[in-house]
Fold these 3 entries.
Entry 1:
Amino acid sequence: MKQNGLICNKVKNTLIQAATCFRKDQKEAYNNAINKETNPRAKWVMENLLENAIAAELNKRPLCDDTGIPHLFLEIGKNKQVDGELLESIYKGVAEGLRELPGRPMAIKGDTVQRLDQSGGLDTDPGALMPAPIVIKPIVEEELRLHILMQGGGPEIRGKTYRVFHQHKLSVIIDEIVSWALQEAGKLGCTPCVPAIGIGRSHFEAASLMIEAMVHGDFSKQSELEREITLRVNESNVGPLGLGGQTTALATFLRVGPQRASGVRIVCLRLCCCMEPRVASVSL
Amino acid sequence: MVTTLKTIYTPITEDMVKDLEVGEMIMISGYIYTGRDAVLPKVVSLIKNNKLQQSGIELNGSVIFHTAVSPAGVGPTSSNKYEIESNIPTLSEAGVKLHLGKGSISKDTIASLNKYNSVYAVIPPVTALLSSKIKSQAVAAFPEEGMEALHLLEVDDFPAIIAVAHGKSIY
């Protein structure tokens, strides 16, 4: 029981960290973008975003009023075990974290129809918000590591999971991703964005790879493909908050999984907003 | 970068609006209303039924910030959502001088803002920063809407950029 309380507390603190703190590489990415940006309005918006991150971390306040839906990514070493009790402690920690944050009360009450048309009202308890289904993945390290992401609504509206016929050319897939990103970046509102991309064999696999890309993506370590996508999105001149400028995307996080022996690639693209990825990790 | 920003104190006069230009970075101080999809149609219904005065809502020279007010704080929602944008003309005619939100708005809305000498500004989604600039908050009307009720905030130096003014748009 004591062990479960410890895990619950770790999960609670990790959720609060994810919702209130920019990562070190994220802050550096903003500083670099501010220094390079020549549009004064774009520069001013990003200075405000960075100042907000500093205030959020200092005062332990949410970065954004849309505190997001918790998404859990659990990595398990070979000799580590996960049982129902552990999962219960994790879910309890999530609820406590949402209450202490405090998260925006966003749980929709009611039966199937009421949850769809939102006629049952909202639960006033921030902790009533259920996390999305947990993703579990084996790792080489002897560790049980939990990553918590807080996923805002705007990027979900602008996200897309769809098929691309690759025609045996990488450029066809990348062109399609850039085209989708350009269609949505201007409508996102909260730019600069971070395109998070998963490419797999099914819609589920692509979405879970996209989540993995958000967990492990690094603003300071960009692959050639990631750099290309960022560069091409930035040519749009959408800029921060859509007000123009060179910084439409701060970086790109791409994860490519196993692929199907056919002409199709399933691509999941989520344009993370200017506060995201909101992610923090803990060893349980 | 050292930039001197114009501070706009509410209530906003007709002349103050005339001085605002697209692309101008401003600070907003004073009392402002908040409202979004759920409550703005209800406010407009009061206007159309001549019940605004008895509701105690004072729209002359006012600012409406498109946000909910939750324990997590405040932050702009997209102003081009139908239930927000479609009510901007009536609210402007009733005296709202500055609509505060995010995202581009239509040509028709831009024209209606010009007609009623009102402007649209965008605010960065800086919830933690904004929380430190709210001096007081209270529900002004429609408490049944919870965090989406019409709230009255007293704020100090909310940052914003004029996105639409005098028939011109930054988008």
Entry 2:
Amino acid sequence: MNRKNFPGFLVFILLIAIFPLLAQRSSAINHYIDVMVFGGIFGIVAIGLSLLMGYAGQISLAHAAFMGIGAYSSGILTTHFNLSPPIAILLGIAVTSAIAFAIGVPSLRLKGHYLAMATLGFGVIVHIVFNEEVKWTGGPSGLVGIPGFSFGSWALKSTIHWYYFVWFWVTLFVALALNLVHSRIGRALRAIHEEDRAAEAMGVPTARYKLQIFVISAAMAAFAGSLYAHYVEFINPSSFDLVWSIKFILMVMVGGIQSIWGSLLGSLFLTFLGNEWLQVFAELEILIYGIILLVISLFFPDGLFPVIVRFLTQRKLEKKA
Amino acid sequence: MNRCTTESTENAEKRITKKEDNSCLHHALSTEEGNRRLAETSKNAFILEIKDLGKSFGGVEALHNITFSVPSGITQAIIGPNGAGKTTLLNCISGVIKPTRGRIIFLGKYIENLQPHKIAALGISRTFQNVALFKRMSVIENVTIGLHTKTRSGFTSCALRLPPMIGEERYIFERAREWLEFVGLADEMNKEAGSLPLGKQKLLEVARALATEPRLLLLDEPAGGLNTAETEQFGDLIEKIKNLGITVVLIEHDMNLVMERSDQIAVLHYGKLLATGTPQEIKKNPQVIEIYLGKEE
């Protein structure tokens, strides 16, 4: 963590730590802790996707599928094979990374949005597999009876436990991602995004970096998927379809495509919208997402987080003046 | 030295196609200096050798059996009318495109099939004809990309901010600053690269290329779009780069710049190598005069 990010990071940890204490006091927002667990899980996906989209400039339409592979690996390995959750999670990450590598090698070598095309197709295939392999996945009705997370005798017993567990990981990923983007690798990724032939001519191995960040990003989604499976203790294919992949992209775009904080904020915002504030609209939900995407891309192409930061710093300056 | 400094770059191209304005070509530079350097460096091995290089795009032959060698430490100009294949040649050398046939030897290694980033790591760097900066990154960050091959930290040590990586970061920014000072952009280092005027963008591209610590620097029309004073400055910069021991390959339409600053010139015409020689020789070469100035009636 470099000095510039550190104050913001401390504030973030403080807010995360005290949020449940405040939320518990009011029965009206008591269940927000549960929503925050989901927000954190989706946040991990969004941070990974932001590294891929905002920094390497590649679009993945399979992040829900990667999350699904993680979730189903955890689900299948713990229910059918009685493996312990941490081992199942690690295997899920390994499987997903291998798949992402296999998709990435041919599609990232080409210039342009071939990754988007490849991942679009892959996401659809994965969704079909989840639906059809009834023996393993439970098919459309889902996989039930996934155990909660436990490691030896240590187990997560309540929503509060889960909250701190998930947000511990979110915090860790934020720190790692911030370090990464403020390093030679992060700058190289931005350079690839802006002008890949120049980056290549300066000695940046563009194809390799794009592949590496894609695999890392997919692995993060798989990890989030495993957390999801163990938290909800039930998964079905509809949580990992194309709509969800698009929602993850939306989360990143709403917050700020080239901002780790922004993508986390975007995932919280959309999670609260989806789980809480837009429940009344039922099927119209997707329409509202469309409108959000349109407004963001037309008026705030850099996302909302930079706008908020600018607003806050300007007010501070005005106060000083 | 009699220089035609009043001409703008835009006119330079028009001028060389006009017969009556050829005085510049003749009086551009006394090449004694250049000849002396050439004699000095010709003892050394060639830094770059191009052998029978050919490139076709479909049926169009952009380069045809190009063979020439660049001695170490000189400024080699490549001139020729638009579409002669100059940039294609540069792209082949820097690995952006693969030649259809022939070989490129850099410091004794065959490089024609290497990826561009590997060629960069070997010591060839370049600028781009249409300026390819990372526009939304800061000026100094642009230069740090040039230092990429000089540092090692991978994903893990960057994400964990391990001590060697922190040391490397300091090194990267110190060196980047030095290169900005070298080209005279140190005062602008925190500006967004895209916000600089064209002249400074071109200087920044040079700083970024130099940061890779190349043995061979390829400049693709550095004076294109610059005014006379800026072009003059750029000429001085080329001299400074040469004094660092870096061999410069210069594609340029500005004949003043070429004649003043280069030691050896290769003339391309319709993908073929028409002539090579010192500026003096090239100026006298009847074929070159013909393609630039038209045939005597």
Entry 3:
Amino acid sequence: MIKPVILWTDALVFLLVAVVLVFMVYARGKPHLRAPWQRVLRGRIAAGSLVVLLAFVAMGMLDSLHFRLPLADSGKGGETHYAVEVLSVLDILVGPLRTQVEKTYSAPFATHLYTRENIEQPDGSLLRDYPRLEYAGRHLADPARERRADILKRGATAIVQTVPAVALLLLAVAFLLGRRTGRGIRAALRDILQGRTELPWRVILGMLGLLLLLLFLVVHLGSVYHILGTDKVGQDVLYQSLKSIRTGLLIGTLTTLVMLPFAVFLGILAGYARGWIDDVVQYIYTTLNSIPHVLLIAAAILMLQVYIANHPDMFETTVERADIRLLFLCIILGITSWTGLCRLLRGESLKLREAEYIQAAMAFGVSHGRIITRHLLPNVMHVVLITVVLDFSGLVLAEAVLSYVGVGVDPTTNSWGNMINGARLEMAREPVVWWSLLSAFLFMFTLVLAANLFSDAVRDAFDPRLRER
Amino acid sequence: MFAYLVRRVTYAVPILIGINLLTFYLFFVVNSPDDMARLHLGMKRVTPEAIEKWKAGHGYDKPLFLNATESGVGQVTDTIFFEKSVRLFAFDFGSSDDGRDIGFDIHQRMLPSLAIAIPSLLIGLLVNISFALLMAFFRGTYVDVSGVVLCVVLMSISAMFYIIGGQYLLAKLLRLVPISGFESGLDALKFIVLPVVIGVVSGIGSGSRWYRTFFLEEAGKDYVRTARAKGLAESLVMFRHILRNALIPIVTGVVVVLPLLFMGSLLLESFFAIPGLGSYTIDAINNQDFAIVRAMVFLGSVLYIIGLILVDITYTLVDPRVRLA
């Protein structure tokens, strides 16, 4: 039996997903909550970027189900022993990407190492040449001649497999749409292809097709080549990039989750209560805001390092130690970033408490707690939502910078920041090792761009000031 | 005006005290000086004597708040809190872990930091305003839409990639400028060009998109409609009416970061090996030199508060409707 491992961040991720799901179910029945979201999804760009974001989230979720495998020789003495290595479902799914570790650098789609080595010839003499890789391209007898044809053939297979998959999806959507509108599947199909549906299904299916194509390409090519090369210790760069998704998403979302209660509570309280409470809250956030954020984070992380180093017995595995550091990073990032939202909410509540409906509620003798939860909170939620969505991409980018400064996630954690940090020195090598950097760039850029585009759509749909125009 | 300034400055005092207490708590209470000594001396097999010696050498061997062995004022002054925290208020930063005077180092490193930061700010401002103005002038057309898309794309690229890419392309492949380093005097120019260019380019995305919203906000106002109704040319409306009024939020946004320019840019300076305060901070973090980090935290906070006060003053200068009470 496997032994499930629930890390702190895993628990919080699933809590967050549960909250989002509950909210979705709740909002379904409320037209005023549903309307802005429908407006978001009707935009082509927003719908497309949401598909990409959801793909990233799916990866992150798969990577958040952790467990430890039992050791092969255990179970005899009645007690099973477990491997020290903590794996996730994603690790199992990507299989060969994780296990096929080469000796050192190799370029994307390479069949030979990137550095020369002494190879022993059958006759006993030594030859200095680029040795074949241990895993990649092993099925080729003569890589120099066959490699290109093999890559093309596998790529073509992937494309050929994507087409029916996308067609099937298209038919399924058309069938459902046709049944709902009652106009039949042919009319629905035509609408989708001409982009006349209410939700931009053409874009959504197009993005899904693109993602499926990438998936098939990875399945067919990834098992026999290192699509994005290998790094210094021979690990597949694609695998690292995929593992980094979880870290990026966690930093972007958990930070918000951590800061939200403080910001909302204190902000509304300050604006609603005014007087000395307002002064105290303002003092707290001005003080925290005055400290340069990087330095505050650095100070806190340095202190955490000292603490972890002095209490090694508290953490069973290195993964757990890295996880605590990740969680702590989220918390400290949250502490530095809640001030902006708090100030916004204070201003908004100051304004709202003078509104007629709240004055009326006060005159009726409605209790303060009730006014805040029933009247104030729902009316500042759009500010919260917009801030949360807008902050996400900034936090993902911040992770890379913090890792470079040396106060980011644990060096053993896979993250784009750590990848960039490692690849930075490789740019000075001759010849240049560029693929680690390129992969980190591609993954990060895709996530951040999708998040930016999506958050713009959310802001446009929710901000009442923008809607009037 | 003067009375207002005095009040603002007095208001800054409790904030600085708060920052001071917070950093003191982080650096000395969460982890005791013993922990720090152990970290520096290596975790295993450290003798208690070595720890005591390290602490004495760095002045961490005193009690935290109250020294019972001393008498009179010494009870308060001969403590870690007074020696390490209260003295910051007099800008006495003490010495770093390797025994250098932090105050002297900061003085030395300010100029290189400014040499990068000021040109980046000014050129960046010029570029961003021009670009934003262009987008606002063609608002609603393809120029505007593609401009905004370009901004979002530029925003989505991490600053690290701008730096690494720029270094690789301009310095390594094209060999236009040296990859990194710094010299004093006029020779510094060739070392400054690349960091400044990268600093400007990496800021274009978010900067011009932000400024564009200011311009659009002004463009929707009544006085602009009046100006157009009078028959003014669109370019005249743009430059004489919209630009001038949109400059108010832009200028105040710049003023608040002016003092922080002294702190330098962490990334640019450390990638280009510029001996400024940014790289000083990064080195301190990497060497776990807590004395320097503490000093920089305090310095940064003071500069930020000065920035806030400057913003208030600027408001009255650029917008005559605002009166400070």
